[in-house]
Amino acid sequence: MSAIRRKFGEDYQVVNTNRGMTFSAPVKRKRQRFVEKNGRCNVQHGNLGGETSRYISDLFTTLVDLKWRWNLLIFILTYTVAWLVMASMWWVIAYIRGDLSHGGHDSSYTPCVANVYNFPSAFLFFIETEATIGYGYRYITEKCPEGIILFLFQSLLGSIVDAFLIGCMFIKMSQPKKRAETLMFSQDAVISQRDGKLCLMFRVGNLRNSHMVSAQIRCKLIKSRQTPEGEFLPLDQCELDVGFGTGADQLFLVSPLTICHEINTNSPFFDLSQRSLMNEQFEIVVILEGIVETTGMTCQARTSYTEDEVLWGHRFLPVMSLEEGFFRVDYSQFHNTFEVPTPPYSVKEQEEKSSLSSPNPLPAVSIPTSPLLGNCGRGGRRERLLSADCADHVDDQASRLPSKLQRMSSTNEEHLWRGLKTRSVLPGGKASSMGDLPLSIQRLRSSSIPAARQSQLEEQVQLLALDGNAEEGELEKQRLPVAISSITAPNPTPIQIPLLGTRPEDNLPPKLRRMNADR
């Protein structure tokens, strides 16, 4: 069927052997391309008006851009006209001086140019002089100053014409456009999965053994669209990422390579599915640039893929094989593809399905608030460890207070936790040491607190110092506000840790007790 379609075109009719059933294949209009498969841009410029003079100002580039038939015509006409004009000037000089009337040129007469009798002889003299042939039969004599001046002008003009036309032909022949003929692109592009991601892929290859230095590839999506403001943009160009951020666009084009464009949220094909591909209209322009190794000139090869040339669920056949001592590339399989299992959904639809099928996230742990530490101040040790935002929340609340209150709050918290670690806290955050106070003050402090109050405070200090399992953390949450309120109370009650004996003196070392008894 494909052979018949290539031979007869798309407008053919498929007839079944059953006479009762006759149907025609869908006729699809030929797609108008922006860039042809051979890289030629299908754009013509018209209605230039007075801008055509710009082509004359850049005459050399204009001649190089012309087709070969026009270049050859200009080349031949320029030399022919120049030769005829210069030959006519030599004939005019001979006619003015009367050299044409002296046909034989006797020995007593000295002409301007020897042996120039008519126009053909003047033309031959110019050709011999211009081509530096110099047969020696025709030559300029010293009796002709105007001939000497014309000879100098002829030499200068001939050099200019030679440099211009020969340079133009050389640049025309050495253009790297023909080098692009040996750079191949696959006939079709494919969409399939690679490394678990949906990708648009096509293949490039180099038929020559000479390398493309600094080869780089770019892709443009040509698609008409309408902006939210209502502006219609025909043939809007959008960049397709083929590894610009990772350096994958820089190619070492020794063997055929498969160029990959990952379809993600930043791709214009994010919502493209197998069904929507049939109704889309776009064109992917591929541009391969590099420096020709042999000439050092920059070469650019181009091609394009329309939506009909993008195959969903296909992959390229491998073309590399290992032989004895070298790798072999089979270019007969360069354009061939085969089908692979590929989801018919777009990346957008796949992400929506995966988000719906994913389990619900764990509920957030509710932590009761605390007037000092905010939402992260209370709770057990496990809850404090699981809360990753606790420290940031406390810093945010502390930064909202005035600077003086921030200093007071930080000082109080520091003294509180330092006292809890040493298990001896005084009002105001100062650590108590019975050995550092005089004996009279120790008696007053111990006698000023009843025994019941001492046992209660002992429980509070011991409970505040605990940092263990969940039960200890729960007791800490219940006792911590009591200790904090004791700091902020206007008339705090002094806290004294109960001693081991009934009297304060019993807790002193023996040496100090003897010294007290002597006093």
TrEMBL record:
What's an example Gene Ontology biological process for this entry?
Answer: regulation of monoatomic ion transmembrane transport
Q: Where is the Potassium channel inwardly rectifying transmembrane domain?
A: 35-176
Task: Provide GO CC annotations from the record.
Answer: monoatomic ion channel complex; plasma membrane
Transmembrane parts of this sequence:
72-93, 148-171
Q: List the Gene Ontology MF annotations in alphabetical order.
A: G-protein activated inward rectifier potassium channel activity
How does this protein lie in the membrane?
Multi-pass membrane protein
Keywords, ordered alphabetically: Ion channel, Ion transport, Membrane, Potassium, Potassium transport, Transmembrane, Transmembrane helix, Transport, Voltage-gated channel
Q: Which reactions is this enzyme annotated as catalysing? A: K(+)(in) = K(+)(out)
Cross-referenced SUPFAM superfamilies: E set domains (SSF81296), Voltage-gated potassium channels (SSF81324)
Organism domain of life: Eukaryota
Where, subcellularly, is it found?
Answer: Membrane
- Looking at the record, which segments are called Disordered? 342-374, 491-519
Q: Give all residue intervals belonging to the Inward rectifier potassium channel C-terminal domain.
A: 183-354
Matching InterPro entries, A to Z?
Ig_E-set, IRK_C, K_chnl_inward-rec_Kir, K_chnl_inward-rec_Kir3.1, K_chnl_inward-rec_Kir_cyto, Kir_TM
Family the entry assigns = Belongs to the inward rectifier-type potassium channel (TC 1.A.2.1) family. KCNJ3 subfamily.
Q: What is this protein called?
A: G protein-activated inward rectifier potassium channel 1
Q: Which organism is it from?
A: Mastacembelus armatus (zig-zag eel)
Could you read off the lineage of the organism from its UniProt record?
Eukaryota, Metazoa, Chordata, Craniata, Vertebrata
